[in-house]
Amino acid sequence: MKTLIISSSLSPNSRSFILCQTMEKELTNKGVNVDLVKLSDYEINPYHRPRTADMDTLAQKITESDNIIIGMGIYNYSISDALKIILDNCFGGSTGKFYGLLTAAGGDKSFLATMNLTQICMNQYRMIQLPRIIYATGSDFVGDDISNEDLLERLASFANEFYDIGTKLL
Fold first, then answer.
1. Of the candidates 127, 146, 128, 144, which has an alpha carbon nearest to the alpha carbon of residue 136?
2. Domain boundaries, the chain
3. How many other CB atoms are found less than 10 A from the CB of residue 140?
4. From CA 144, how far away is CA 51, in angstroms rounded?
5. What values do phi and psi take at 108, rounded to 5?
6. What's the mean pLDDT when you consider all of the chain?
7. Which one has a higher pLDDT value, 58 or 13?
8. What global pTM score does this model have?
9. Of residues 11 and 123, which shows the higher confidence score?
10. Is it the case that residue 106 has pLDDT exceeding 90?
11. pLDDT score of 78
12. CATH for 2-169?
């Protein structure tokens, strides 16, 4: 199983990236071939600007993966512009793939913001979503570490379910 984890935050102190790193470890320990992409390392442009070589590379990684995990910060109850750019320009090869969501938000009232991304992935690309979504808040972290044991357990459950279902869909 080849899993692509996309950390879509451009912030150098991204909590969603910490979630992605944790998931990478969980899945690697199960023998999964994981490629973790930190979107902040890629040059991306909106649709009306020239496509970059990094966008071509990302589109190829998406096409070649068996499944995808998207890590995202929640901004104003929605997805970031960087994530929207790659959805519009790089996700053509994601049609029909299994995916999961790891999210980090400032507070506990933005949990429905994932529905926007779910609608895009399921309606536009006919992707299949893992029903479990990781939703973390600032109180789940101390510095760059996850401090909430419940969140760590939920991440482990996510990894187990993503692995179990993902291998069955291949």
1. 146
2. 2-169
3. 21
4. 33
5. -95, 10
6. 95
7. 58
8. 0.96
9. 123
10. no
11. 83
12. 3.40.50.360
Contact criterion met (CB below 8 Å) for 101 and 69: yes
pLDDT at 144 over 90: yes
Q: Residue 128 has which token pair? A: 């299949």
CB 44 within 8 A of CB 82: yes
**Tokens standing for residue 144:** 């760059």
Cβ pair 63, 32 in contact under 8 A: no
Q: How many residues does the chain have?
A: 170
Distance set, CA 105 to CA 9, 135, 138 (Å) = 11, 7, 7
